[in-house]
Amino acid sequence: MNILVADDDPVQSRLLEKHLTGRGFKVQIAFDASTAWEKVQKQRPDAILLDLLMPGGTGLGLLKKRNGSSSHRNLPVIVITAVEDPLVLRMVEQSGVVSIMPKPVDLMLLDVTLESVRSSLPAKPAMTPGR
Amino acid sequence: MAARNDSPSLATPAAARGSAHTEEPVLDRAAMLGTVEQDLELLRELVELFLAEVPGLLAQIRSGVEEKHAENVERAAHTLKGALLNFGARRACEVARQLEIRGREARLADAEQLVSRLESEVTQVCRALSDFLREVVP
């Protein structure tokens, strides 16, 4: 399972990368929203861990792009944020995300949430050996 | 896609729970170790990333306040707040949070004192992190 971590904080990104690779996930990092969207389109991750306030656009902007895209609107997004504004959090909630987690992230809760995302993904076609 | 959920869990961000207290320690060592799941090498790496990141963020906040660029203040203070949360640095985090709100509301007229306070708190955090690494990381 490929996960895109979109967060401008290198501390948070590295923490998540180390944790997730240790659990067998493949991880890509984007430090701003526009790079995150490019990676969504080109590398087609299975899920995004998304910060809300980043350079190059906001997490909310990325969610709007996802929801407007027939190819990506079902891409699971877990928001990990230190944003406290209830209005913003409500907008995120209404945009259709798997979960909203406050920083510092509870890694055990993240594991459980990602497991539920993983189990809901459509099975990928098996590779034929020797081809 | 079953993973999408119309009722996501919505928890209060840690920074919003309770208010800063002057007697609070600069760092919460237990929280910090919990964040890295007791992985001291990872902790060293994160501290080094943090120490490298801090001067730029503080400079963005100070110049944002001086130049009345509220959006820059909000974003840099928010990023710093998030990084501080990983180390349980709640005192510094609370000051960053106040500056984030000032930036969001474009109320920067008398924010320079807060910036000075943030710089002082973050300096203490950086010193405490360096001391901690010397003590516990081989």
Which features characterize this protein?
heterodimer, A: 131 residues, alpha/beta, Rossmann fold, five-stranded parallel sheet, 5 helices, 5 strands, globular, B: 138 residues, mainly alpha, Four Helix Bundle (Hemerythrin (Met), subunit A)
SSE layout:
The complex is a heterodimer of chains A (131) and B (138).
Chain A (H helix, E strand, L loop, with lengths): L1 E5 L3 H12 L4 E5 L2 H11 L3 E4 L8 H9 L9 E5 L4 H9 L4 E4 L4 H14 L11
Parallel strand pairs in A: 1-2, 1-3, 3-4, 4-5
Chain B lengths: L28 H7 L4 H27 L3 H16 L4 H15 L7 H25 L2
Helix pairs in contact in B: 2-3, 2-5, 3-4, 4-5
Structure write-up:
- The complex is a heterodimer of chains A (131) and B (138).
- In chain A, 42% of the residues lie in helices and 18% in strands.
- Chain A has 131 residues and is α/β, with parallel strands linked by helices.
- In chain A, helix 4 links the parallel strand 4 and strand 5.
- Chain B is elongated, with a radius of gyration of 16 Å.
- The model of chain B is unreliable at 1-21 (pLDDT under 50).
- The chains are: A alpha/beta (131), B mainly alpha (138).
- The interface between A and B is large, with 39 and 39 residues.
Distance between the first and last residues' Cα of chain B: 46 Å
Q: Nearest-angstrom radius of gyration of chain A?
A: 14 Å
Please state how the strands of the largest beta sheet of chain A are arranged side by side: 2-1-3-4-5
Please write the string of helix (H) and strand (E) elements of chain B: HHHHH
- In percent terms, what proportion of residues of chain B is strand? under 5%
